[in-house]
Amino acid sequence: MIPPRARTGTALRLFAQLAAASALASASGFATAQIFPERPVRLVLSFGAPGGMPDTVGRLIAPKLSETWGKQMVVDPRAGAGGVVGTEIAAKAAPDGHTLVIVSPAHAINPSLRRKLPYDSVKDFTPITQLVENPNILTITPKVSARSVKELIALAKAKPGALAYGSAGVGSSQHLSGELFKSMTGVDMVHIPFKGGAAVVIDLLAARVQLTFGATTSLPHIRAGRLIALAVTTAKRSPQMPDVPTIAEAGVPNYEAAVWYGLLAPAHVPASIAGKLHRDITTVLNLPDVREVLANVMADVRPSASPGAFAEFLATETTKWTAVVKASGARED
User: Fold this and answer.
1) Which of 39, 212, 269, 300 is geometrically suited to a Cys-Cys bond with 265, CB 3.0 to 4.6 A?
2) CB–CB of 99/44 below 8 Å?
3) Pair 138, 185: CB distance under 8 Å
4) In Å, what is the CA distance from 29 to each residue of 153, 195, 225, 271, 304?
């Protein structure tokens, strides 16, 4: 048996060793953050086509961060499988902050939509920050008689199953924006999935589908009068469409289905590096010329207050969309 005095001495030495190790780790983390990045940073785009929102945001912030760091940020488009391809690359990268990935609501949707993912959407990542938010637009063909959200709901209830809404595919934000609308209003509308948002607009213009909760790519047709915007899916009106109400204020209280894009790093990136990434990216997003470019494509700059705040946001989004996916019965293998 170890004498009490010896046990006390042993405990004190252990405490001193742990304290020294902790101080060394903190100092090391601080030093790491001071010299980060040590080499080019890879920015993986997990979602969207060239010219789409992730591509626009990534190519806008990359040269600004390259200038800030004195090291190049390389944009690497790796879209595929609803964001899974690019996200998996980041999940398996070294946890040093030199590989980052831009994700969309698909990151919160995929765990419930897909039977198996090659990563854990929570445990395999370090949240950094939300980047931007933009609306989907509840858009109808002029051949639909409704001219407001309330009139659309009344029409859908009077003719169950008669209205079809198009989306960019099963599990897309457009699809689930529609499913959320259906569940909150009790209407019966048919979902028609397409291979991308551009195909939806073509069929909407031809009135082969009657409406969509579509992307901002429909905006030129709305401005030309070929399509009609009834509402936006965000909690606030878009400055680019100030006369178009939100779905919530147009008759579906508490409805919100914003399209957001955010930044993740691999799991176990040091907090010091995550913090530096958050600070530097927030600074870039708030540059007047960056905000102006993003405003012109209906993107609202929305950096998170902290990496922890973005983690909380992701948890809330995942809970929300898990319920919508379950109610819709959507599945993609």
Assistant:
1) 269
2) yes
3) no
4) 55, 45, 56, 8, 22
* C-alpha span between 271 and 29 (Å, rounded): 8
Q: What is the pLDDT of residues 213-261, one digit of tens each?
A: 998 888 899 999 999 999 999 999 998 899 999 999 999 999 999 999 9
User: What is the token pair recorded at 85?
Assistant: 């391809």
Give dist(CA 210, CA 141) in Å, integer: 6
Whether residue 46 is predicted with pLDDT greater than 50 in this model: the reply is yes
- What are the residue ranges of helices labelled H in the chain? 4-35, 53-69, 84-91, 106-113, 149-158, 173-185, 197-205, 219-223, 271-285, 288-296, 307-328
| 97-145 confidence digits (pLDDT tens) | 999 999 999 999 999 999 899 999 999 999 999 999 999 999 999 999 9
pTM of the entire structure?
Answer: 0.86
Q: How many C-beta atoms surround the C-beta of residue 76 within 10 A?
A: 16
Beta carbons of 171 and 113 less than 8 angstroms apart: yes
The DSSP call for residue 246 is B
Residue type, 265: A
Q: How many CB atoms lie within 10 A of CB 243?
A: 6
Domains belonging to the chain, first-starting first, are 40-134+259-328 (3.40.190.150), 137-232 (3.40.190.10)
